[in-house]
């Protein structure tokens, strides 16, 4: 008996099992890397092909495409904090505003080149988020959410009053002909009689050029988010969301991880704010209002919190409703129902009219309510259900469960 036990415990007998486990892990890593590569290629193709893909929906003009990218970046960053850790912040609009103000100051003091403005906006938002996160993360749950909301509203009110020399109060921070722009002057760029425009080494950041600049940054931001999700740091954040107390009992200090996630999320918001200033060199305190923070929460939940691509989809849906669906009127609806008999077309137009135009918030509210009730995982959960339905995964699982039920007990 003892000889048998010794034989079982022998390293030689355990070696095949160890090799098999390593093979499984290597196969899993290879499959994950392959899926991530496919995801990045498809995501990049869809983003860069946005003008053609969205043309049938009337959303192919540059200003709206820029907003899709900018708020997609904002939602991706928010998802790193909320989706991975479960900490709900109602103050991320403060970092959006800080990024905008910092970028405009870069245009006024340094150069009209977009690169320094983006860097300056991200760094300022990161420092500001580190200060707010250090205080707010002393609490969890609803207390954390209220603290972030309080800091955001304080920032909003300060931008309107005490910090007027920096923010220009209600008017907002704008470009002026008298701005120094020291780097531009040092490089010999002549002043013009009109306000200068933002550029990327001479290429104007307006129209489709501005969209593709934002699109490339969105792709880079998405890739960084993907690497965070797949990293040990991302696994640690998921562990915090699952059971933070249990992690603390094992001796792990979770605060540094939370603060790092909060700062990264704030830097994403600052990046989005600086891109707002790049495409439209104006910064106002309204970007720091609590409604902007609530909007990014809706985007993330609508698309699917904790998923990679869900927040981007949620941002696109809300911005589409805000800019396109809100422009629908009675004539648009009547044209859409023109294939029906005249009486039925008039009836459908009368029913649908309260949900479009100025009533687009009602449609968005109904959609959000349906998502929360029937698809708690957001639109990505719905897409996954449809994919499983067509792939036959549901039928396969049912067949396996029925086979298990009919198998005789030993």
For this entry, give a set of tags.
single chain; 410 residues; mainly alpha; two-stranded antiparallel sheet; 19 helices; 2% strand; globular; disordered N terminus; disordered C terminus
Textual characterization of the structure:
This protein is mostly helical. It has a domain at 64-289. It has helices at residues 2-9, 11-48, 50-53, 62-85, 93-109, 114-136, 141-160, 164-167, 182-186, 207-230, 232-249, 255-279, 290-303, 310-323, 330-336, 342-352, 360-374, 379-391, 393-406, and strands at residues 173-174, 199-200, 203-204, 282-283. A hairpin with a 2-residue loop joins β2 and β3. The radius of gyration is 26 Å and the shape is globular.
List low-pLDDT spans. Answer: 1-8, 397-410
Total number of beta strands: 4
Q: Which word captures the global form?
A: globular
Radius of gyration: 26 Å
Q: Treating each run of at least 4 consecutive H or I residues as one helix, how many helices?
A: 19
Largest sheet: 2 strands, antiparallel
Distance between the termini: 27 Å
Instruction: Bin the strand percentage.
Output: under 5%
Mean pLDDT: 85
| Biggest sheet: strand arrangement | 1-4
Helix proportion of residues, in percent? over 70%
Query: Which series of helices and strands comes N to C?
Result: HHHHHHHHEHEEHHHEHHHHHHH
Helix/strand structural class: mainly alpha
């Amino acid at each position: 008996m003892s000889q048998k036990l010794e034989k079982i415990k022998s390293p030689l007998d355990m070696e095949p099992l160890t090799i098999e486990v390593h093979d499984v892990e290597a196969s899993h890593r290879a499959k994950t890397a392959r899926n991530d590569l496919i995801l990045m290629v498809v995501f990049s193709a869809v983003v860069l092909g946005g003008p053609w893909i969205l043309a049938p929906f009337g959303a192919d003009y540059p200003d709206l495409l820029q907003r899709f990218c900018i708020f997609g970046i904002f939602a991706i960053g928010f998802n790193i904090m909320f989706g991975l850790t479960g900490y709900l912040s109602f103050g991320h609009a403060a970092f959006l505003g800080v990024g905008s103000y910092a970028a405009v100051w870069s245009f006024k003091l340094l150069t009209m080149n977009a690169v320094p403005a983006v860097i300056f906006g991200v760094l300022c938002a990161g420092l500001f988020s580190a200060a707010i996160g250090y205080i707010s993360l002393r609490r969890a749950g609803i207390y954390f959410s209220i603290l972030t909301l309080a800091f955001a509203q304080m920032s909003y009110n300060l931008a309107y009053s005490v910090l007027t020399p920096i923010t220009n109060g209600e008017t907002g921070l704008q470009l002026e002909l008298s701005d120094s722009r020291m780097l531009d002057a040092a490089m010999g760029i002549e002043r013009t009689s009109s306000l200068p425009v933002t550029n990327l080494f001479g290429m104007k950041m307006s129209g489709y050029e501005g969209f593709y600049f934002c699109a490339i940054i969105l792709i880079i931001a998405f890739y960084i988010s993907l690497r965070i999700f797949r990293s040990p740091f991302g696994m640690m954040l998921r562990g915090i969301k699952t059971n933070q107390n249990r992690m603390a009992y094992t001796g792990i200090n979770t605060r540094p991880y939370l603060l790092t996630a909060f700062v990264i999320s704030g830097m994403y918001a600052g990046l989005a704010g600086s891109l707002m200033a790049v495409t439209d060199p104006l910064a106002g305190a309204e970007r720091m209002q609590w409604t902007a923070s609530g909007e990014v929460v809706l985007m993330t939940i609508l698309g699917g919190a904790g998923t990679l691509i869900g927040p981007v989809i949620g941002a696109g849906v809300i911005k589409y409703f805000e800019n396109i669906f809100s422009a629908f009127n009675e004539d648009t609806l009547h044209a859409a129902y023109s294939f029906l008999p005249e009486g039925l077309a008039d009836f459908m137009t009368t029913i649908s009219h309260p949900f479009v135009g100025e009533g687009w918030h009602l449609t968005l509210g109904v959609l959000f309510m349906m998502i929360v009730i029937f698809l708690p995982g957001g639109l990505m959960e719905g897409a996954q259900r449809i994919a499983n339905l067509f792939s036959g995964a549901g039928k396969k699982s049912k067949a396996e469960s029925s086979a298990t039920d009919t198998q005789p007990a030993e």
